[in-house]
Amino acid sequence: MHYLVTGHTGFKGAWLTLLLLGRGHRVSGLALDPVDGSLFDRAGLADLLVADHRVDIRDAGATTAAVAAVAPDVVVHMAAQPLVRDSYRNPRYTYETNAMGTLSVLEAVAATASVRAHIVITTDKVYRNVNQQKGYVECAPLGGDDPYSASKAMADLLAQSWIRSFPGAPTAIARAGNVIGGGDVSRDRLLPDLIAAYSRGRAPVLRFPRAVRPWQHVLDCLNGYLALVDALLVGNGLGEWNFGPCRDSFVEVGDVATLAAELWGGGAGWDLDAADHPHEANLLALDAAKAESELGWRNLLPFRDALAWTIDWERRVAAGADPLAVTREQIVRFESLQ
Fold it and tell me: What is the pLDDT averaged over residues 59-67?
């Protein structure tokens, strides 16, 4: 099977590329250039792809041409402006990339006859957050206060409308939340910030230590996406799907920082950043019962294991291990759990 991953140069995209290759698929990519220090570059993934297109998905014509040139069997649309704080700095770019960029991909898939299945990746932040304790189900109202969340809700609604309005390849929407794993270098994300601080012997500064997040290893999330693709390929899986961990993985940011320091081995603490910051949700959780019951998917790594795998990856690579080899080793280990 030939997969096209949009956003393949990003953190999740790089892990998905290697997961697909490990399962014997061919992979092509469509994305912007990777950021400095990315897993994509450190693992040399460009050499493992059938095709590597560098395209801004806001350019509908270039997107359609690239998808047509690849002629994939499956498209996994992950390309996005993925950061809440960056969405405040550059809201127009965020809206254009996440909403209209998704339209570009939908149009490109519709124009490419080879595509047999397509999933659009949005986020848990598409839900109208009312700080409820129970997880949001797929039929819950969508919303979004910050530009990132609103732009992804727009992309989600746009995809739903497109699916209902136009014929084409079977398409579904996947929603997931915070994922962790080795090799993430994104700005303003907790684990990269913690690891950078602990590796330098410093105490990280936390903006919202009491905020609760559902933490999930990137491989658990991606395994859900591929379970959804498999369902689409046999005539099932239409609609919207949540992929999130169980309640045991809902942990306060401050507790994550404390445990990460313990696993790193430095014994460092953390400090509170008392400055004013843009709004971020205090609690947001998904109910993944639908994916568990209808797709047979389940989360395989509990929170502590997910965090331990992430710290282990970072410590080994910092000590000189090959990022590609360590990532592949963790994928093989993960696959053995199924």
Answer: 98
